[in-house]
Amino acid sequence: MADIESGGGSRGRKVNIDLNLVPFIDLMSVLITFLLISAVWVQINMIQMGTSFFAQKDPNEPPPVPPPNADIVLKIDVKQAGYVLTFGRQVISLPNSGANFDDVGLTEQLLKAKQMYPEKVDAALAVADELPYERMIYSMDVILKAGFPKISLATGNP
User: Fold this and answer.
1) Is the pLDDT confidence value at 155 over 70?
2) Is the confidence at residue 14, as pLDDT, over 80?
3) What CATH number does residue 131 fall under?
């Protein structure tokens, strides 16, 4: 509590004011807590993946063995205009037909890639920020069904 006592003015009365600081302190603690909690969720749209799943996690642990044909890149870019599949040096564009993505064409191309390299198990997926979350999940499902269980998400706009 804070007290302010002063000698009276011309009338000779003493002024005694008691300020109750407890509600102010409570308000400030609630505001600081709210600030700390909301600051964490400001960047919810970014997923920090670190390096890749081939990176070394513990300095004492030996590095993991990369999957077969890891040097051959299989990347799927999901954009507003459609899919762009990069496989090795081939770049295959699968444009949208109206508002629909060419999911059948993507599945066919991924199955062709799996036939060419049956031991390849990894793929990278990059989804444009303006696309809904469901599009990323559906693309991941298509990649899994084609036989690529190790999916890494690329950050940034494709």
Assistant:
1) no
2) no
3) 3.30.420.270
In a domain, 60, yes or no: no
Is pLDDT of 146 > 70?
yes
CA distances, 142 to each of 31, 74, 75, 111, 117 (Å): 45, 14, 13, 10, 17
- Quote the number of domains for the chain: 2
Question: Are residues 13 and 78 located together in one domain of the fold?
Answer: no
Q: What is the DSSP string of 60-78?
A: TSPPPPPPTTTTS-EEEEE
Q: Count other Cβ atoms within 10 Å, centred on residue 118.
A: 11
- Spatial contact of 76 and 87, defined as CB atoms under 8 Å apart: no
> Are 89 and 147 part of one and the same domain?
yes
Fill in the amino acid letter for 147.
G
Q: E strand or H helix at 135, and its extent?
A: helix 133-145
